[in-house]
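Example 3.2
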Amino acid sequence: MVDVFRYVSRVIPSLSVPPAAQLEFSIKLHWTTSLLCSITAFLSIVAGVPMFAATATSTTLSVSSSGASASSVTQGTVVTLTATVSSSGTAVTSGSIVFCDVSLNAGCSGLAALTESQLTSQGTASFAFRPGSGSHSLKAIFTGTTTSSGSVSAVSSLAVTGKYGSVTTLASVPESVTGVYDLTASVSGYGPLSLAGPTGTVNLIDSSNAAVQLAPIPLSGGMVTRALAFGESTALPVAGVGSVTKSGDFNGDGKPDVAVDNGSNNTVQIFLGAGDGSFQAGASFSLGGTLAAVADLNNDGKLDLIMIGAGNVSVLLGNGDGTFQAQTATFATGDGPKGLAAGDFTGDGNLDLIVAVTNGLALLQGNGDGTFQPAQTTALTGLDRGLSTVPLTPEAVSVGDFNGDGKLDVASANYGTAQSTSQGDSVSVLLGNGDGTFQTPLEYTTQQASGSVAIGDFNGDGKPDLTVTSIATSNGSESQSTVYVLIGNGNGTFQQPVAYALPADAFPNSVQIADFDGDGKADLMVSSFLGGDPPDAAGHEDLFLVLLGNGDGTFQPQRGYFPATTQFGASNNLTVADFNGDGRPDVIPLEVATTGSVGATVLLNLGATTTVTVPAVAIPGGETQVIQATYSGDTIYSTSTSGAITLDGIAPASLTWATPAAITYGTPLSTTQLNASSVVAGTFVYTPAVGTVLGAGSQTLSVTFTPANTTDYAPATQTVKLSVTQAPLNATVTNAARVYGAANPTFAGALTGAVNGDVLTETFTTTASGTSIVGAYPIVPAVSGAAAANYAVSASNGTLTISQAGSTTSFALSNQNQVLTATVTSVTAGTPSGKVSFFGGQTLIGTSTLAGGVATYTLSTTPSASTSITAQYQGDADFTESYSPATSILSLASASTALTLTSGTSVTDTLTLAPAPGYQGTVQFACSGLPQNATCGFSPSTIAFSGTNSPSDVVLTIKSGTGTSAGLREFEPLSPGNHPFLPAAIFGVPGCLAAVAGMKRKGKFPRGGLLFLVFALGGFACMTACSSGSATPPTTTSTTTPAGTSSVQITVTGTGNLTQTVNLSLTVK
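Structure, written as tokens:
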């Protein structure tokens, strides 16, 4: 308690509490805390509510196959269910998961519960199995612990499709004639009894006589039966005298395996299931007792084996691969342990063991690692027939939740005070408190010694019911065998036991619950240790008994199955699982022989069966023959082959048939080939028949000979080989041609020599492709068709000739008209190579090499505008030579070469200027040679070319003069000589202005003085401007264009001083 103060002092450093006060407070706090805890615990117990609320959880379910998510699989596929439990994002690692199929029962009770698996350290639990055909709705239920509440996953749907398996059997009954038998073939499907019986055909095969087919048997006329039956699959080679078998998936492959307790040598032998009803013998492991149960005790997802010894239990931990670790410890149980069961009785998520011991039940709480805490025993007592209290000895236990409170309960099957009496024989029900303790047992009297107990839902109400096997004794020997059914009320109580009689000497000590007939109702299967009465004709008694459920809590009368062989006379233990993956329960009875040896035979659950009998089948051969029946399968069931039976045959009639000579394909069969003979009279039937045309190759001819005397001779068959050679066929090809770069043409040819109306197709191949160079290439023919293999083809190749392809060459200027560019292209495909020469007229300018189909040449001087440039491609191996059109750098043309102009008017003409491709620069226009007084103009006056131009038009306008005009009079310039008033104006005006100013200063500036000054200045100006002086007389000028014809030259001037002209004839009227 002082630590409390240490914590406080760290939070509040200034707090100082004397040590004495600390001690006093600690004592008070200790007692207060203890009192509060005691009160809380008391209230929790009284109210039935835990002291601390369990945390909420969530459960998810994934369905996968071969590592991938699955919603649909085929019949026989292993499917893995994985449940994941978490709480607030943290994995829940303890507890168990119930996997169920709610399509069978919405409450996941009874048959709907597939299995229960422990959560591992990863917070997951998995279950691998092979579901039967149909639709399944799968769910995972976390049952919860004291610290984690239960939760349920969403439902996942799974569809299973495909065919069911089948099994074929063959039986024979000899007739009075040697070698003749009535043969009965039966085909059973591995599917629900509600399905249709197998259809199709059964073929009888003589496997000792080259697999000769004796007779096909159609099943359409057979008899169909739909009754529960089991067929023998395989026998397990048990190495010792054992007493117990247990089933589980020990290697994690989703297929049930079997563990057999070889009690005589204290070992357990493992048989690994192949999934088809057969098993592979595995290793054996030493036991410390008798095999009692299979469960995952250390929460690693791997099944472990639990044994009962002398006053103890022990464990072999599984490795998950079909092997087990050695036993390391034993755990005391008390005296006389017998049956046990595993379950979580304390709510900690680990599996515990409840063990039937002398006079009580011992609980061993699991630690989750395969070890257990010391046993806690609950005594069992009951009333004998004298109503006295007597101790009870439980023989077997089973666990379940009988009152729906989420806590496991226990049911035990009890003997009375002694196994030889019926005193106190009963079933005890102990309701669990969830903490490893139990309430006062409830007893249900059976009046017979109870031997085994199992839990199921027999009336479909979702409440657990009980079934118990028991025997009555008289004078120390068993005289009556019974199976009891107790219907549960859902509150922990059960209705009174209802007895179903078994054969008196059945001595059932094992009971299993499953839906054996596929009707969705729980059935019972009990072992028959001493066999049922009466025995069959051979003195054999049944190995097990089945009581089919009615679905309302009642059962039909028992029926015995599988009479024991001469070696084995009883079954001591039953193991039920789906051993062949058809979704139906199969059984392995552990058979005990009178000699003490043990056998275990796998019996597969059969569905509808079709049986057909063929009378009077003659077995040819004259000696022992091995006969089998092969079923062809149908839309529901797959194929199967029966085991072999050995029958005596009768001697067939002798046949002589020599190997015929070879024939050529197209030759029909005739008596030349089909010519078997016999010294006995009879009928020959050949296959193939006369007139058949056989394909080329080695062919088999067969004959069936039916003697007229069938009493002394059996029908005979014989075969010979006939060699059919190929017929000759000629294939020719027509030669073809194309140019380089073009696609190959459609080839043609001819086939000669086809027979028998065969339709053959000739196809062609060549090594030439679209890029193949000029040359000759072979055209190879090939022949195809359904009958092509029957011909020996003689092929004559044709020739494909590839010649040069045409080319085109174009010319353009670039780089400010200083570079000549030639572009050479193919008229088909590909890029020409080689050289290009540039000519100016007939003069070679220069030569350049093509690169990517383009050649350029840089000019040292610019040719004249009228120079005609030509690019000449010289060709190469694949392309012919070509030339560009001769192109002037600048060309000028007029629409009219002669124009007429009327005096005083204008005339227009259109000029077309065409530069070479790629030309760049600005051109302007001028004209010369115009007649007198005529002018010219251009619209536009200049044209700019950018290299991407095309020819441009310019409008030329020529205007003529319009007549005469009068000139203006000319004056001489002003000067003192010719203008006498000029000096006065120059010198007088300033004087006047000065005088005026003086008058102003003297105050003598009259109003009329200013007026005088204005008029004086005006007079001077007028004299200056209007004085005539010495003037020149006016003149007259002529502007008329004279009539006549002129040669006008139009000149265009471009960049680089390029000029081009055109002449026009201009007539003026």
